[in-house]
Please model this.
Amino acid sequence: MSLSIEMGWIMFKLKPSNKNLEEMLRLPKVSNYDYLLTTDKDLVEDDKINIVFKEAQTHKINRLLDLIVNGEEVFLVGHNERGQKRVEVRSIQYVETFGDDVYLVMKDYRLLTKNKLYQLEKELNDIDFIRVSKSHLVNIGKIRYIKPAINSRIELIMNNDDIVEVKRTYLKDFKETLKI
Amino acid sequence: MFKEILIGLLAVISILYFIKLFRESRFNFLLRNKQKQMRVINTNVNFKRGTLVKALVPAMTIALVLLANPGVEYNKFSNTNPNVKIAEINSKSDIMSIYKDFQENIKNDGYFGRGVILEVEKETEALPEMTLDNSESMPTEKADDYSETNLQVVGVDEIDNVKTDGTFIYSISDGKVVITQAYPAEELSVYKSIKYNLEEECVEENCYSEYPSGMYVDEDYLIVVVNKNTRVNWKYYEEKKENEDDSVRNMIMPYWYGSSDTAVYVYDKEDNFELVSTFELSGNMIGTRKIGDNLFIITNEYVNYQAMEEDENLDVLPTYNIDGEEYTCGYEDLIYIEGTDPYGFTNIYGIDLDKSDVDLETILGSSSHNIYVSSSNIYTIDHRYHFFGRLEGLITDASENEELTTISKFSLNDHEVELTATGEVKGYPLNQFSMDEYKNNFRITTTTGWGENVLNRLYILDEDLTEISVVGETKEDKIGKPEERLQSTRFVGDIVYLVTFERTDPFYVFDLSDPQEPKKLGELEITGFSSYIQQIDKNHVLGIGFEADDDGRTTGLKLSVYEIDYDTVDELGLIKVEEIHKEVIGNGEGSWNWASVTYNHKDLMFNLNKGILGFPLSQTITDGKLWRHQSGFLLYDFSLEDGFKQIGYATHGVEDYNDYVYKGLYLDHNLYTISNHKIAVSPLDDVENFIKIIELVE
Model:
């Protein structure tokens, strides 16, 4: 069975709470959760999916969580003057349109794709891409820093140092998406 | 009052600033939390370094295990390069495991893999037919002075679609090699033509066809290199399928596949162009050179892993065939450079034309499409992939890394070829002129990245392909302005000329006499750019390329002469570089020009002593209502003092995209222009006035 799960559904909770371990497992703070991670088998909960592990296995658990969260890899095909290339969507910084052209912006190059922005928005929404303006669809995983200005403008500094602005009309959705 | 306002203002500003800070920290907290949930590690300013390291330790361990790829042994020959790993191959299972590891890595990294490949049988030999022999005795008169192919390296001949030996012009027309008596001009006539199986012939599962891709001519031989195509005959399978033959039905794949091989036919000039030997080499030719009596052919061929996997006893190895006798390469002759694409073999064939002997060296790796050949070594280049697999997102983006190019160096001892060194550089070379060998050192220019991240580099490697120095790695010694890519390179001894372009053409001169410390001597910024450069003499360089406006839009073709004055040094310590002559063939309103010489150096006819420079030029011209296409050979009177003066434009009067003048050459005082169906001759000083024009078609 393949793991194809919508993002936003999978939440992990560690019991008993251990700050160090939470940090190592990169667990966000959650109130609701589907998966219970525990080092004590007496703490398992009936209505959850329970993973019992030993502290020494932390790195294995980390990898398992990656696999569960990332699920299936999703690829997009684009091309530039060097030819065609297939990229895993999570390595895309953001998607940008110029007129009718849609570009997948990678760290240091960009690819022209045949997909339309609205199609990509629909497809990639589950993988935490978010529309921030008429011409930009941003990979949340590639935002390095959020820089709000004094007025309600917000700039996103991407991992490749590009700056993408969140337009006013998309601000509400953007805030909503950030809240887990 | 003023004080209160000021305090009020400050308070408002502070509050606003506080709100901004609060929002900023709130947003970034949410972002980090969200990214944690997405299991993305970001090198954020807020991020605690210790945590990152702790989290990375187990991941790095896994990455190291993955990268080390246990099970493959390294070091077959004395490879001294720490960056390059060589895998030894002794059996079929070795190459199968290399393939599987690579497939696995490719899958994890999201690169393209290749589809299913169907094996097709090699063509049984079909000898070319000779036709149109309309001469009783062979002409022997020869011009004293005639064009030779414009070569990158003196003494290393390059294949071309037109050649001359002073008596005959050899050209390719409609899949035939046409031998035309060219000297004396009045006698211009077709002497002989050699026909190849251009039409596809289908025999059961396969369809065959062949096409001459180029020629060499020397004192003794005419050597024709032919591309042989074998294609799966789907009709045959369709028919079988209708007959409900299950075994065959299962074989039908949704992929269309054929193979391409290379044949070399050697004709004896003394013996009225009799075919004296035939070499059939597996793989599609990607490059060739000829040094004396030794011919080198480099081919690529796909490895049919699927078929090998299905059939335990099947071996798919490079084969060659000398006059009907077949030889196959052994597994132990194969070499694999870790990280390169193992989907195919790159074969380097050395052929002794006199002794009809072949030497073959094969590397498992097929991304090589660019070669450089000096008088004693062949250099092939390959793309090397980065693999980080599923840990990609955790450590770094595989796609975000720079391109790597591996270099394989094969030494030449007569026709014997042997891999002697491998090396690696960042970026990708543009063409054969991006590479050079001088005093045993290998020099290469590469470009990597896009947009603002473009980096152009100039590497000097020693004879073991170990880096001696590199220019362009840091901001301070960057080659070209931001966003500019290398457009042409020409190495001449201790000097290298470089052209980069985005909006204007910076032309650079570097001194490489100290390989440890290459030094920029001078630069010049002008409009347009040269895509081909050739040194005329120590102080003058010819550039051929495009003129452009200030925004970098090309507006036509351009010929330039750069003058380099090594003795005049300015206050910055740079020598004086000037564009002393410039000729622009402008596109004009609604018209455009196209010249193959901008990317194919072999289409340039240039002789400083004769004072001539010419190349084929195609034009589309409009009078505002109608479009007209014309092609011809544009000839200039050229001297360093006076620059370019147009002599004339020789056209064959054809207005057809498929029939254009594609080459011009001179024999003594006459210009010969060759189009697909005609050869015309006219005096060099009056090129538009033909002495004779002949048809090449029967």
Notes: The two ends of chain B are 105 Å apart (CA to CA). DSSP finds seven helices and 44 strands in chain B.
